[in-house]
Structure formats: structure tokens, C-alpha cells
Amino acid sequence: MGCTTPTTIDARRLVAVDFETAWSYDHIVEIGCVELLGTKKTGRVFHCLVRPEAPNRMSPFGIHGLRASQLSGARSFKEVADEFLGFIADSTIIAHKEDYERHTLRRELERISRSALGPERFICTLKMAKAARRFEDCTLETVARQLGVYRQSRRKGFHDALTDSHMAADIYLRLSPEWSTGDALRNVRLNRRLKPPRVTASGLTLKPHKTAGRVFLDTKKKIADWWRSVDQQRGSI
């Protein structure tokens, strides 16, 4: 949801989110969310189509395949916002290319006079994949295939938000333990623009982060300790 992302020791609910859009990142046509607790998906999801207040142009249609006629009977974002935000609550949000998803959501929230979610709430699996430096490319599909977590979309040949959020969640679960060893992910702040990684003598350079009294996993040692505690809990079950 990574070192400077807001995964916390005392609050480990995360939600993987994906949006399909009608017009650039301005208008959502589909929302998919998958809940995680600690290191497991819980099975709880949120999914709905959304009637956009903008034309469904050909470029995004070629990605998600949703026609205007399929969306005409759906609720608007304003009508689904409370249910969607209630599902996310105060959890950390996982997204592949989080800046796209975050700005998509920001624009929709602005239209209904609601507050945007800050970048500290997000974990970017695209940046995690780039930092790992072992994938052919870092698209959602390629990373998911190479990690063995690829899912065929329910709309064959197109993207769908719920399938993509499942894959983002699985990618996070596969890549996040690498923060405990520092083998692959170095000098990366996942909630900021990625710069070319460079190895330093001290290994991981991180900026501590605290919010609302929570202690975030913002150092290599904290992350290693957290995963050690997870392993111990697994062994006691």
C-alpha cells in the first residue's frame, strides 16, 4: 500500500483500487476495490459501473469496452460516492500507477465538493515493480503474468476494474516482502515520482512519517520487524 507508504503497524487494512474512465482521467465509468487485511485478501470487494458526465470517447472505450448504452442505467459518481468512500474508509490504498487513479478520484471528488485523498494514502505497485528491476515491462498485465497472479478479465480482451484491482492487490502481496530484506527495492519513495534507483553505501534512505499517532513502516528495520511479527503470527495459528 513500501517504506514511505502509509502501511502501519497498528492499522493494516488496505484496499486495492482501480478505475476505468470515459475521458482521460476526468470521469469514472467503473470502480473496483479489493480489501486486504495484513497479508491476505479478505474476500470483500466493492464493484459498480458509473454513469459518466462526459462522452465515452473511442480511446478509453478501446481499453475497457464499455459502451454508453451499458452505462446509461448506472448511478452517477455522486450517487455512489458515499458507498465507495465508506468502503475505503481510512485504509491505505493500493493502485497500479497510483497518480493516475488518485487524480481521477480527485477530479470526481472536486465535482461534488468533497475533499481529495492525499498521496500519503497511496501505494503504487507500478513503482514497486520498477524498483524491483526484473520485469520485461511494468504494465499491470506483464508484472502480474511474471509473478504468476494474472487474471483474465471478465470482459475478454478488455480491462475491467475489479479484475485489475485484484491483480494490483496480488502484486503488492508478492512484492512488499522484499522491503523486509532490501534486496530489490532501494532508494524509492513509492508515493512520489520515481527517479532512477541508485545504490548508496547505507542502502535504504528513508524519511520517517507519522500521522494521527500511527507509527508508519518507514524504515528498513521497522518493515523487517513487521514481517517477522507476521511470520510469528502465522506460525502460532
Task: Record the SSE blueprint.
Elements: E1 13-23, E2 27-37, E3 40-49, H1 58-64, H2 68-71, H3 77-88, E4 92-95, H4 98-111, E5 122-124, H5 125-132, H6 140-147, H7 161-175, E6 210-211, E7 214-215, H8 220-236
Parallel strand pairs: 1-4, 4-5
Antiparallel strand pairs: 1-2, 2-3, 6-7
Care to describe what's here?
The protein is α/β, with parallel strands linked by helices and 237 residues long. It has eight helices and seven strands. The chain has one domain (13-236): Ribonuclease H-like superfamily/Ribonuclease H (Nucleotidyltransferase, domain 5), CATH 3.30.420.10. Helix content is 36%, strand content 18%. The strands form two sheets. Strands 3-2-1-4-5 form a five-stranded mixed beta sheet, with helices on both faces. A hairpin with a 2-residue loop joins strand 6 and strand 7 (214-215). It is globular, with a radius of gyration of 18 Å. 39% of the residues are buried.
